Amino acid sequence: MRLLRRLIALAFVMLLLAGLPQYSAMAAGYATLRMGDSGSAVKRMQTALITHQYLSDVADGKFGPKTHEAVRSFQKGNNLKVDGLAGNQTLTVLYGLGEKSNNTMPGTKDTLVFGSSGSAVLSMQKALTNIGFSTRGIDGKFGNNTLSAVRAFQSANGLSVDGKAGTVTLAKLYALEENAGKDGSAPAPTEPSVILSRTLRSNYTGSDVSLLQTKLAALDYKLDINGTYDSTTISAVREFQRLNRLTVDGIAGANTFKALQSGSAIKAVSTSDLVNIPTTFITLRSGATGEAVKALQKQLALLDYKVDITDKYDSQTIQTVRVFQSINKIAVDGIAGIQTQTLAYSGNAIKCSAQPSAYSAPSIGQIKIMHWFNEVKPALQGKSSIYIYNPVSRFGYTLRLYSLGRHADAEPMTAEDTANMMAAFGGKVTWTPKFVYVRLPSGNWTVATTHNVAHDSQSITSNDFRGHTCVHFLRDMDEVNEHDPGYGVTNQEVLRKGW
User: Fold this and answer.
1) Are strands 434-439 and 445-450 parallel, antiparallel or unpaired?
2) Phi and psi for 74 in degrees, rounded to 5?
C-alpha cells in the first residue's frame, strides 16, 4: 500500500512537471516575433490582426513586409511603441489580455463615411492631403471631394475601394503619413498596374476616374474630384494632352496614362506663366540671356513646343526654335530674329501639336516587312534618299543615303529635315533607337529603326547636322548576333517589338 501511494505521488509530480513548461511560458509572456519569423505563432498573430482589420492578407505563418506594416499600424492605433516587433506587450493587447483602447488614433473607433463630420474627418483630410491625395479643402466635412480622395487612396494602396474610412484604411493612411513625416516628403503610393487600365471617357465612373482626377489636380489642372468623368474632367484632360503633346481628344487612354505617371508630366499653365509680349524684338541667339529669352521660351511652351524655361538661349532652345521655324515654313537657322518672334507672338503660329498631318504617313495595309539584304539594299543601290516617318511623334523627314553596309548610313537633306528629326526624338539627342516607317524610292513602305546622333563623316554641310545617322532594317537574328552583337541586336529587338 505504501509503495502504491509513493507511485501515485510520483505520477502526480511528473504530471505537474509535464505541464510546467507551458505554465512557465504563459507566466513569462509571449516570445517576440519579428520580420523573417515563421510558424504557428506568427499565424496566430496574423489571424488576430486580420480579425481586428489591421491585415487584409491571408494568415500564412510568414512574418513578411505586410505583416510588419500591420503590426506597426496596430501598435500606433493602440498607443504602443511603434517598432514593428510583436513583443509581449503588443501580443497581449492583440489577444485581448489587456484593456488598451483602440480609440487613441483619430477616427479609428467608428468608420467614417460620406456625410460624417468632426475632428476625426479633419484629421483624415489632413493625412490624405499630406501624402498627396487632395480633398480640395480641410473642413472636417466628409463630402464628395473627400469621398473621391478616400477612394483614390484605397485604389492606390490595394485596399477595398468602397469610399468608407474604416480601421484598415485609416491604419494604412496614418502609417503612411507617419513615414512621410520622417523626411518631410510624402511617399509615392504603390499603384497596381490595373488601376489605370481601361480607356476613360465621358460619364464613366469609378475608382480609376477618381485616381485620374487626383493626379490631374496634383498637377494644378482645374477639375472636380468626384469619381465621374464629367465636363470638368474632359476639359482638364484636353488641356493636359495639349501641354504634353498628346492627341487632344479629352479621352484618357494608354498614352495619357503613361504621360500622367511618367514623373515628367507638364503642369497646367497658371496665370503667372502667361507671356508678357515684348514691345520690341531683339535678335536672340546662342548665349543670349534675360527676360526676352524667358518670354520666348514661355511662348513656345504655350504653343506646345518642348523647351525648358531657363532664360538662357541654350542648345535645347536653339533646337526648339529650329523646329518652330520648320513647322511654320520660315528659314531654319535656330536664331530668333524679328520674323521668328513676330510670328511666335502673332496668334497665327502653327502649334507643334497641330502640324503632324502635314507629314506623309502610311496606312497599315501599305507597310511591308522587307529584308535588308534580300529586298531593301538592292532596291536602294544607286538611289539618293529615303523618307522617314515616326508613328509616335508623327514627324517626317528626308534622309540622303550616304553608304550601304549592314545598315544604311544617311544624313538629313536640309536643316528643316534635321529640325524635324530632332522633333521626332522629342528634342533629345540619343543613341536609343526608335521604330519608324520608311518610304523607299520605289514608293513601298517598310519598317526600320534609327537614332539621331550625328557621328563620323558627312557630305552635306548646310543641314545643321555634323555627321550622319544610321537606319537599321530587318535582318536575320543569327546573322546579326554573329556580325553585330550589341547595338545591332538592340535595333533588331526594337524593330520587332515596334512591329
Assistant:
1) antiparallel
2) -65, -45
